[in-house]
Structures are given as structure tokens and as C-alpha cells.
Write a structure and sequence with these properties.
The complex is a heterodimer of chains A (293) and B (265). Chain A is mainly α and 293 residues long. Chain A has 13 helices and 2 strands, in the order H-H-E-E-H-H-H-H-H-H-H-H-H-H-H. Chain A has 2 domains: 45 residues, no CATH class; 219 residues, MetI-like (MetI-like fold, Orthogonal Bundle), CATH 1.10.3720.10. In chain A, strands 1-2 form a two-stranded antiparallel ribbon. In chain A, strand 1 and strand 2 form a beta hairpin. In chain A, helix 5 crosses helix 8 and helix 12 runs antiparallel to helix 13. Chain A starts with a helix and ends with a helix. In chain B, helix 3 packs parallel to helix 6, helix 3 runs antiparallel to helix 8 and helix 8 packs antiparallel against helix 11. Chain B is 76% helix and 0% strand. Chain B has one domain: MetI-like (MetI-like fold, Orthogonal Bundle), CATH 1.10.3720.10. Chain B has 265 residues and is an all-alpha fold. The longest helix of chain B has 34 residues. The chains are: A mainly alpha (293), B mainly alpha (265).
Chain lengths: 293, 265
């Protein structure tokens, strides 16, 4: 705390600080970090996507469309983008389906039980993605408990590791807490008396769900889906560790191009592409919200 | 109260199974960390503490742990010192462009870490900040400050202003009001923000992966590299200890302000 006085006005100063001056002074550190660690790097990234790469990591500071043209004409990258978006959408929907019952149950729970369960939901969120991915590797390896159980039932056991299936199972679980929290935030509008009214008036449980509960919770669903889709598209640790170098997605390709191939302009171009996908998701989200209103 | 609010048994069983799915990987590392096997196998064929011994004999892991711990401590302290005045400005002063600035300062959270990591890598490479402690501190601040600013701004804006007004009316100078009234009342918010910053920094792996090297490495990065190359129960031992550390931090937050309040609202 000792650094605070240097950025706050000296009380003995005879003149009154104007709000503007005070604001500039107190916001200077955070503004500098934001400018140097966020704005400058992102602008630089956009610039790099129009620069020429040199073998070994350097760039030539000439303006070129080469990266973009190369990216959009290469079937490997088109498939990469298509796969990333498609898999992320599928993961998002699965996450929604497995999170919804928990969120609904938590919404109806109360007191210490609710607090306890909420902590259980949040705890994985605060646990490193590396740790959780490692847990999934232990569960899904070829002689692991899941494959063992399937074999014990006499069924042909699929290989769940080092392919997209394992990534799918692991990533869905890793995104669940985000979805549950987003759903719960949106469930605020769900008044139990409305359900009660529907049931009293003779609606079956499934009809009550489809006609009353689901429509009221749609904003929460939209928010959760946006959040999970965005996180799935940019997830890196789980596909890298569970994919075993055989699952190619946008995020893993960015890392490989940046660190292994040292082609920073191409990595930058792929990054900007991720941001474009983000923009599209955000646009879809606001379109959905507009229709809901 | 009508019967329909009692959750039906099929629903309870479904919720239980989904909780098992959600918590399985976290819970599994505990029994796995006491495995006596040479390879990753569950359930283990016999139990031992050999992987804990192996972990504490692994100087690379220990080194990375101390790096992570000091990095998280420095980042947390700096985040609070920088974010408290900033949050105060954002909630107590009115000026043109305030909302825009707030959005700008919290914007790094919206950017995927893989993109932010690459962006920072390219800039840091030309500044000579790669694989240095101050480079890591700076990069982590970029992601922890938005969290700190958000939590502190929420705490400050829900704070009762009457006490500050009273102190001012009674003749306290602005700085006295800030340190004797505003900050003490903000303590739960500061604890929550600090805990969050600590966990975010301690667990950060994607951005850090871009910025570390053989010279300096953090624990999550070392664990990532370890799992990437071989998956044996050593990482389970490290994971179990990490989860216990996380639980300790969560309990501090829960004590200070209630976890639900800190994250859901």
C-alpha cells in the first residue's frame, strides 16, 4: 500500500485538485500498462498480418496481402477454420445440455446447500486447465477406467485419447462452470410462482418446461453459449495435450506457427481470423437478443 | 408450498451424475497421486507416496513453484496498488469518457489468451523482455488488472457513501477520508480482488507459455511441458497440492465476503 500516497494528492496542497487532473494522475499506471501491454501489441499484431515473414522469425516490413491470400486459398487452413468453428459449436451445445439441469437445480436450491454446490461449481474454474486436462487424460487413456468399464460390458472400446473425442469430452467439462454461472445469472427472471401457475392451470411438466421455463431462460442460454463458444474457439491447452498432435484447431496452429515454425506474420493472421470469428459470434449473440426482446 | 417444487428423483440422479462428470478430473488426481505405479493407471495397482518424494526431489519443479509463487505475490500486490486508485476514480469521479475508459481497461479479458500471448510475445521480443521476471510481471498485470478493477469497482459502487460524507463534513481531508474510511470499508473487496489476482497469475499458462524459456519458467508451464512429454503420476501429486492451495485461497475469500457474491454478482 505504500505506493498509493505517491499517486494521491498531497493533503497539504493549498489548491483544490480538479477532478480531471486527479483522474489523470490516478489512472496513469493502469493506462500505461493497458497501452503497452494491450493496445500496442494488438495493433502490432494487425500490422504483422500484412508483413512478409523471413525464415527464422524475422519479418520484412513491407505491406503485403500474401498471408491473407495464402490463408484463404489453402485448403488446409480453410478446413482448419471450418473444423474449429464446427467443433466449438458442437462443444457449446453439449455444454449447454449438460449444464442446464445443474443450473436449474442450483437456482431452486437454497441456503447452505446452494452455497456448497455453488462452490463445487466454481472450484474447477479456479483449478488450472493443465490439472483438469491431466485428470481427463488419466480417465480416458486406453487402459483407463472408462475404456475398462466399456470393455467389461463386452462392448468394443473406442480409443478416446489423442483424437477429437477426448478433446470433446474434456473441453465440455472444462467449459461447464462458465455455462452454469451464465445460466444462473440469466435465471433471475425465473419466478417459481410462474411455474406454479402453469402447473396449477393443468400444464404437464414437459409443457411447463417448453412453454414457460425455457423461454424465460433464453437470455441466459444465449449468454452462456456466446461465452463457451468464444472460449472453445480459443482453447489451447486441452486440444494440445489431449489431441497428441493429431487434432488441428485454430488455437493450436497459432501456437505452432509462433513457437515452432517461427512464422509470426502467419500466426498473426490466424489470430486476427480468430478475432473475426469472435466478432461474428458477438454479432449473432446481439441478433438473438434483439429477437428475444 | 406445492409438491411440484420438490425436485423429482430422476432429476436428482441426473444432477448428481452431471456433478460427477464436472468434478471427476479434479477429484481423481487425489487417489492417483498416491499411486505406486510407474505409469499413469487408474485404479493404481498399489499405493505409495513415491510420487510426492519424486516431486520434492525434482529441482526444476521446485524452482518453477518458487518462481510462480513470487510472481503471483508481486503481481497481486501491484494489481491492488494500481487498481484501488483507478477503481476509486471510476466510481467516485464523473468525467467525459469514463465508461469508455472502464471498458478499455477491462478489454484485455475479452481477448483470447492465445491471441494476447502472441501479441505480447512479438512486442516483448523487440523490448528484450522475453524470459525475464519483469516481463512476466508486466504480462500478468495486463490480465489481472481488469479482474481487480472490476471487483473493486463493484465493491466501491455498492459501498455506503454516508460514512465518507460524514467524515468529510466533520472536517477530514480527502486523503484521510480515503485511508481511514474508504479503504477499511473496502477490505472485503480488496481481499477478493487479491485472491482472484493471485489465482489468475498463479494459474496463468497460455500467455506465460509464449514468454518463458529455459532460463525462467512457472509451475503451470512446467506441468504443461511435463504432461506434453510424459504422463506419469508425478503431475497428479503436483495437481493435488495445487488444488489444496486453491481451496485455501477460496476459503479466505469465502471468509472475507462470500464466494457467491464475489463471482456470481
Amino acid at each position: 500500500m505504500s505506493a498509493v500516497p505517491t499517486t494521491t494528492p498531497v493533503p497539504a496542497a493549498p489548491r483544490q485538485w480538479r477532478d480531471g487532473e486527479l483522474a489523470v494522475l490516478l489512472l496513469l499506471p493502469i493506462a500505461l500498462i493497458n497501452a503497452i501491454g494491450f493496445i500496442l501489441p494488438v495493433l502490432n499484431l494487425a500490422r504483422y498480418s500484412f508483413n512478409k515473414s523471413r525464415v527464422g522469425g524475422g519479418i520484412e516490413a513491407v505491406f503485403t496481402w500474401e498471408n491473407w491470400a495464402g490463408l484463404l486459398s489453402d485448403p488446409f487452413y480453410l478446413e482448419l477454420v471450418f473444423n474449429s468453428v464446427w467443433i466449438s459449436l458442437a462443444i457449446t451445445l453439449t455444454t449447454l445440455v449438460v449444464s442446464y439441469p445443474i443450473a436449474l437445480y442450483l437456482h431452486r436450491a437454497s441456503g447452505a446447500w446452494r452455497t456448497f454446490l455453488t462452490v463445487l461449481v466454481i472450484s474447477p474454474l479456479l483449478t488450472s486447465a493443465v490439472v483438469r486436462t491431466y485428470g481427463w487424460i488419466a480417465i480416458l487413456v486406453d487402459d483407463g477406467p472408462v475404456v475398462g468399464a466399456i470393455k467389461a460390458l463386452g462392448l468394443p472400446a473406442p480409443s478416446l485419447m489423442f483424437n477429437i473425442k477426448g478433446v470433446f469430452i474434456g473441453l465440455t467439462e472444462i467449459l461447464m462452470p462458465y455455462m452454469i454461472l451464465a445460466l444462473m445469472a440469466g435465471f433471475g427472471r425465473l419466478d417459481p410462482r410462474v411455474e406454479e401457475a402453469a402447473r396449477t392451470l393443468g400444464a404437464t411438466p414437459s409443457r411447463t418446461f417448453m412453454k414457460v421455463i425455457l423461454p424465460l431462460t433464453l437470455p441466459g442460454i444465449a449468454l452462456g453459449c456466446l461465452l463457451c463458444f468464444v472460449l472453445a474457439v480459443s482453447s489451447f491447452i486441452t486440444p494440445k495435450l489431449m489431441g497428441g498432435g493429431r487434432v488441428f484447431l485454430l488455437a493450436t496452429e497459432i501456437y505452432d506457427q509462433a513457437i515452432v515454425t517461427l512464422n509470426w506474420p502467419l500466426a498473426s493472421t490466424l489470430s486476427i481470423l480468430v478475432l473475426i470469428v469472435f466478432g461474428a459470434a458477438l454479432w449473432a449473440y446481439s441478433a438473438v437478443l434483439r429477437r428475444l426482446d | 408450498m406445492m409438491e411440484i417444487h420438490k425436485t423429482s428423483w430422476p432429476m436428482r440422479i441426473l444432477v448428481f451424475l452431471l456433478f460427477v462428470y464436472l468434478l471427476a478430473p479434479v477429484i481423481l488426481v487425489f487417489p492417483l497421486s498416491f499411486s505406486g505405479d510407474q505409469v499413469l493407471r487408474f485404479p493404481p495397482s498399489f499405493w505409495s507416496t513415491r510420487w510426492y518424494s519424486a516431486l520434492f526431489a525434482n529441482s526444476q519443479m521446485l524452482q518453477a513453484f518458487w518462481t510462480s509463487l513470487s510472481l503471483a505475490a508481486i503481481v497481486t500486490a501491484l494489481s491492488i496498488v494500481i487498481a484501488v486508485p483507478a477503481a476509486w476514480v471510476m466510481t467516485r469521479l464523473t468525467f467525459a469518457g469514463r465508461d469508455l475508459l472502464f471498458n478499455l481497461f477491462t478489454a484485455p479479458l475479452l481477448l483470447p489468451t492465445i491471441v494476447l500471448g502472441l501479441a505480447i510475445l512479438i512486442v516483448f521480443a523487440s523490448f528484450g523482455l522475453l524470459a525475464t521476471m519483469h516481463g512476466l510481471v508486466f504480462a500478468h498485470l495486463v490480465v489481472t488488472l481488469p479482474y481487480a478493477l472490476r471487483v473493486l469497482a463493484v465493491s466501491l459502487s455498492t459501498q455506503d457513501r454516508a460514512c465518507e460524507e460524514a467524515a468529510r463534513t466533520l472536517g477530514a481531508k480527502p486523503l484521510t477520508v480515503f485511508f481511514r474510511v474508504t479503504v477499511p470499508m473496502l477490505t472485503p473487496g480488496i481481499v477478493a480482488a487479491a485472491a482472484l489476482c493471485f489465482l489468475v497469475s498463479f494459474d496463468e499458462v497460455v500467455i506465460t507459455l509464449f514468454l518463458t524459456g529455459p532460463r525462467i519458467s512457472t509451475l503451470p508451464v512446467e506441468l504443461y511441458n511435463y504432461v506434453y512429454n510424459q504422463a506419469d503420476p508425478l503431475v497428479a501429486a503436483a495437481s493435488a497440492l495445487l488444488i489444496l492451495l486453491t481451496l485455501a485461497v477460496i476459503m479466505i475469500v469465502e471468509r472475507a465476503m462470500g464466494l457467491g457474491k464475489a463471482f456470481v454478482k
